[in-house]
């Protein structure tokens, strides 16, 4: 049997099951991390939505029909034009030989054959090929990835807030402080998920939980994370190789102060 012909024959039978509706016309304009969208499912495929509302998150496979299919290496310039070039199989670039897009979205609502989602990164009218559930088993808590920080500080801040909320599930004073401390530490030590970066956290459980989520530091194998429950103060001892940094949250910081004050005013080096 000729395998190439078989694949060609199979792919020719793919039919979009729906399309994306949002206000974005240009991929480059969509915020990193995606935006709100509605996915319209064709009437003949709507029975396949049965019980989909039991899921909070979905994988959406769509077809970036405007993508350049001849590009095999690219700088992820939307993230940061100063980053090096990568092969497209190591990026989520729209440009690739078969521009199949893979996006994890949060399912906000299901209504009349439409999925209201957040985190979608496709432009208005993009054909949707398939939808699959996001299961707990899809999580890799501590993967190894290249360090691709956005050039814009505010973009990075928004990314960390999104990650922190996805991990911790609520916006609270511990989350605010952990995100802002993580920004400072990333500026000092670089990649938060680095296997060499270790932290010992003293403070409340929310603060510690978010820091663990952002650093992906495990308690063991290897041991990068240590936690002591402390209701009096919040202090973190960070160490990478032989360099250390200890940051303490200033006393009497409440939620409003944690949200409003810049990073530099929230912490003291000790
Ligand atoms: Zn909390």
Offer a few descriptive terms.
270 residues, six-stranded antiparallel β-barrel, 13 strands, 60s Ribosomal Protein L30, Chain: A, single chain, five-stranded mixed β-sheet, binds zinc ion, 2 domains, alpha+beta, Elongation Factor Tu (Ef-tu), domain 3
TL;DR?
With 270 residues, the protein is an alpha+beta fold. The chain is built from 6 helices and 13 strands.
**Helix and strand string, N-terminal first?**
HEEEEEEEEHHEHEEEHHE
State the secondary-structure class. Answer: alpha+beta
Number of helices: 6
Radius of gyration: 21 Å
Largest sheet properties:
6 strands, antiparallel, barrel
- Highest-level CATH class of the largest domain: Mainly Beta
* Range of helix content: 10-25%
CATH homology-level superfamily of the largest domain: YaeB-like
**Termini, distance in Å?**
70 Å
Strand content: 25-35%
CATH architecture assignment of the largest domain: Beta Barrel
Shape: globular
Low-confidence stretches: none
What do the pLDDT scores average to?
92
Number of domains: 2
Ligand inventory reads:
zinc ion
